[in-house]
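Changelog note: in this version the structure field was regenerated for every chain. One regenerated record is shown below for reference.
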Amino acid sequence: MWKKFKRLIVKHKTYLLGLASVLVGTLLFVALFWNKSITLVEGWYNLYAQFILQEGLVPYKDFPLIVPPIALGLWTVVQAVFGNTLVVFRVMDIGVKLVLGGSCYHLFTRFYSEKIAALGAIIVNFILMSAIYDNGVPSYNIYAVILCVWLIIAGRAFLKQLFVKNTISNGALWGIGTLFALSFLNKQTSGPLTIIAVCAVLHLAVWRQKGFKEMCKVFLKLLASSLVVVGLVWIALAVWGCLPDYLNQIFMSESKGSVGDIFFRRIVEIFVSYAFVRALLLGGIISFIIQVLVSNKILRLYKTPSFMMNKKRMGLFVLCVLGGILAAIGCAWIKTAHSVPQYNFHLSTYSGNINAFIIAGLCLFVFLCLYSTLMVLFVKKRTYRVYAELLLYITFLALTYSLILSYGYPVTYPFVLAVVVCFLLKQRIQWNWAKDMLLLGLVGIVAFFCISMKLESPSLFYGWRAGSVVQPLEKSFIPALRGLKLPLEEKKMLEDIYTEVQHYTNPSDPILAFNNNQVFYLLLNRPPYTRYVSYYYDVSPDSQSLRTIEKMKQGLLPKAIVYLRFPEWVRAFHEQAFRDGQRSGQRQLDEYIQHLIDSGVYKVIRHYEKKSAKNGKFENSFLEDGFSLELLVKNMQSSKRGKSYDK
């Protein structure tokens, strides 16, 4: 047994070394910061799981939920087994990142050498973890990427069997169909687009290889396998009594996450209203035209998966890449870098000029999709590798586009940049030592940029920038923060608010965290005022905010409010993007809370904002300019309830 295992290790030694390098590199990176910061947006699924485990509430029916149940199910199981503290979900996130890195490495080995695959996986994980939006908590966006990766792996295996053995694997089809179902049950916006992309490539390959009749059979088998999994989940929801609520919230909700909103409104408006996508498409088209003008041998150049470059081809290739980069910079930098908030590209925290190169990488990725499409449609000699490359590019592009719909840039471009880098390195250069040095240099550059940025600014969401983890850190006495260390300034602020809330409220008194700071429900150990835990502009329907106002007008006021004030530009930006410029329910709730303060119903006992200190630094430097955080407590001497508010 041991000899057989040893032979297996020796046989796959290179693959295992590459996998180990990705996993160890990920662990070393995570170890620098995983328990040394906190952001206000943590805590969504902690509360959802708490509703189920402690109060016996039914999702969708008893409390709103904007996404399908896969992520909620994972969080609920973890919380039931390990408890409800932030450190538990930080450890869970480490496991998710290891699965992501290993999955990306395995995917890239299907297309590139182990060395290049390891670099691609490291680029994915390092850039993703260094993102200021990555706060160390597992996200359904990451689950979407992992499912997308395994869809490509399974699809490639199906294509290989189709072209090499000339057979259709029913097992592979049922596996792909199951992944389709899980993708849709994880996130209703990214799931359908990745499913459409995979189906398009697989059905095109079967049609051209086996004919229209076999393509229809493949479609029916994929549909049947998907419906089995989705049907079982829907039956469970029906037994739970929440299927109608689930269907309404997922398909027809007012928030950005509904399928109806994405496919019948925003998928059309995106090309007109979002400068980012306009720049991406325009940059891609111009760069593609430049490359066609430079070389009339595009199809012959890319006819094989890899080729030995001579001087002429190397020159053409370099000119194509430079032309693409210049065109992307010219289009994207002017149109995007000055119109999209700086937050959306985490690399801009280091240097704003890198934004243009991020867009250039995305444009180059679009070119790969165009080239692969030309290969599949017009090159007579077809192999599974041609279709597999198209599957890789078009599926990642679909995932990227779907996440861009929700401004999820930091989750998307690490993958497309990794694919672009892997593609460029795949072109076989004769000097192996130069290639190895290039690989090591790229790894060093990626590691330097990502580690330096993450240590200085671990995470950021509107209003709150976690402090540098290289400054003095201390543990907090707040139970939910057990296992974490925080910068002194942030720790003191949280402990002061915790102490005040314990003094002014009882354990059963509900509190309100508004606008987007739901972590305080967990930190302060007080029940939420409503079952809707996040009032953020893009994910929260206006009706939830208006219902909260009506509840307040009835006199059922929360004993305390942790109030994160947004500047006007944030409200205007989100109303333009998600409300067609109309006044949002969140703005109205914001104004109503201010009315309660002005009427004396609430008093402000803690106020925090960024301001200059005597030593030349800033007090409350974790708060962004224009944002402030206040603790409001109900004034027991006031009998006013704010009913006269008529706006």
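Spot check on this record: The two ends are 77 Å apart (CA to CA). Strands lie at 460-461, 464-465, 473-475, 485-487, 511-514, 560-565, 602-609, 611-612, 618-619, 628-634.
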